[in-house]
Amino acid sequence: MREVIYKHALKNALDYGRADSKAVLGKVLAELPELRKKVNEIMPAVEEVVREVNSLPKEKLTEEIKKYEFIEKKEKRTELPELANAENVVLRFAPNPSGPLHIGHCRAAILNDEYAKRYKGKFILRLEDTDPARVDPQAYDAILHDLEWLGVSIHEIAIQSDRLDIYYEHAKKLIEIDAAYVCTCPQEEFRKLRNRSIACKCREISAEENLKRFAKMFRERKEGEAVVRVKTDLKLPDPAMRDFIILRITDEPHPRVNRRVYPLYNFSVAVDDHLMNVTHVLRGKDHIINTRKQEFIYDYFGWKKPEFIHYGLLKIEGLELSTSLMAKGIKEGIYSDWSDVRLGTLLAMKRRGIQPEAIRRAMLDVGIKDTDISFSWKNLYAYNGEIIEPKANRYFFVPSPRELLVEGCADKTALAPLHPDFPERGKRKLEIKAREGKTRIYISQQDFDALKEGEVVRLMEAFNVEILRVDNKAFAKFHSEALEEARRRRAKLIQWVPEENAKVRVIAPEGMIEGLGEVNLKNLRAGGIVQFERFGFVRVDEAGKDELVVYFAHK
Ligand code: GLU
After folding, report:
1. For ligand 1, is residue 114 a contact (CB within 6 Å)?
2. 246: closest CA among 259, 230, 261?
3. What is the pLDDT of residue 74?
4. Are 263 and 167 in contact (CB under 8 A)?
5. Which strand (E) or helix (H) includes residue 126?
6. The pLDDT of residue 87
7. Atom 10 (ligand 1): residue with closest C-alpha?
8. Which atom of ligand 1 is nearest to the CA of 269?
């Protein structure tokens, strides 16, 4: 216990210049909740440690805290397996810039980052933009911001549209060694032959002639008239593997370059992974066929292959993750923008108050096993809750409010702690104003529906009332003040807000919820994360207006 007090006292002293006993006590109780019942016993110990820590010079504090940071990091250590041949590790994350990143990208981004950090390797961000039809010019910057927010450390950035000449050079080399050819057969015709393992006429053309045909692709050929194919084996069991396309012509404009011949994914990836000295490629099992195709390129060039690691598929349900559907929905006005709460983008997560560290922990749990799994939002939310719970102050909020008229009561100022574990943060006030002994308060629809005539319920942090009648409003009379009385009667504790309150709109993936919150919510600023008691964590999105708009994170 002393160790825990000492650690928090050091941190508190470093954060605020001097450690404060109450603040330290709050942290200790948050870490060791079982001590809550013994506050009186541990307070003297806290005070003693705080006195000791406050007498230490700053250098000593910084030196001492290192031990504990080390311990915390060790506790959090991931259980990712070691990589084979982990020398001079170079990893890459290679998204297509067709939109901002979503939760589906996080496994590759975060696990590569973890390994890069573990092996002190290099981590390359490669933007794969060789399909002009699927490029969103804003995605380049958006992806960088997303990665920064995620806490991913990128050491080098490559953009494939800057490297087109490199791919042309490599295609030329393959043609020269008779490993690739320019195919001008109509696609349908080629497919029919290929499916019967028969070579098309272009395959037999000499390398010399093919080089000329290749040059012509850049000058005269129109979209769809010619492609470059790599020679695989026409007897391969999977027809899709037979002489697959490595370059094609398209007239689709590209936002960054003015070219017409573009490499296909498997070609540019193989060339880049080799030239960038990538040592380990982490990708999903859905890429196994791609890996096989890329291996043909490696073999023709005689390149050493990286370690290919194929992890199982990760099924992520509940939010929209298809970049093209998201883009379409935004265009059609179905979604407000990329941060619409129904989307699985990182922008939307951030807006809801999901912390990058929680996403990281959830992805570490997902790991790189080759079995297929479903993503657990529950797990992500549990991690997020651990991170934000101590920071989030608490407020009353009643969704779908209903009126409750109480008679026989006096004015009352109810005081509720901003956070029960951190008494030093103070209390918030809820003022009940009675006119001729009567007051109007609001409770949630759910609590309203459960009211029974004659029962006693406790309005949390205020007093107990006896329900007289439930109509389109509920009527009650003051019963008693003490919490003990409510406990004795096993009375329900219900949330409420007084007549003076704050309108709140909660935006959640499942829809919008309107309600009333305590008036103190009007002091919050946009960006803050708070807990609506018994409702869940929310991030304040718009403040300072008539209505507070918050985004729902989770329970
Ligand atoms: N651009 C590819 C993708 O996002 C990269 C996959 C890979 O080669 O690992 O699917």
Report:
1. no
2. 230
3. 47
4. yes
5. strand 122-127
6. 96
7. 95
8. 8
Q: Are 504 and 552 in contact (CB under 8 A)?
A: no
| Distance from residue 331's CA to the centre of ligand 1 (Å) | 26
pLDDT mean by block of 10 residues, the chain; 555 residues = 91 88 90 85 92 90 79 59 97 98 98 97 98 98 98 98 98 98 97 97 98 97 97 97 98 98 98 98 97 98 98 96 96 97 97 98 96 96 97 97 97 95 95 96 97 96 97 97 94 95 97 97 97 96 94 97
3-state helix/strand/coil string of 11-50: HHHHHHCCCCHHHHHHHHHHHCHHHHHHHHHHHHHHHHHH
404 membership: H or E segment, kind and range: strand 401-407
Any ligand 1 atom below 6 A from CB of 283: yes
**Across the strands, what pairs with 406?**
439, 476
> Which residue has a Cα nearest atom 9 of ligand 1?
283
* ∠ Cα 3 79 126 (to 5°): 120
Dihedral angle at the C-alpha atoms of 440, 442, 443, 449, nearest 10 degrees?
70
Query: For tokens 């570490």, what's the residue?
Result: 364
Total length of the chain: 555
| Helix or strand run (H / E) with residue 6 | helix 2-16
CB of 269 within 6 A of ligand 1: the answer is yes
What is the atom index within ligand 1 of the atom nearest the CA of 283? 9
Helix (H, G, I), strand (E, B) or coil at 442: strand
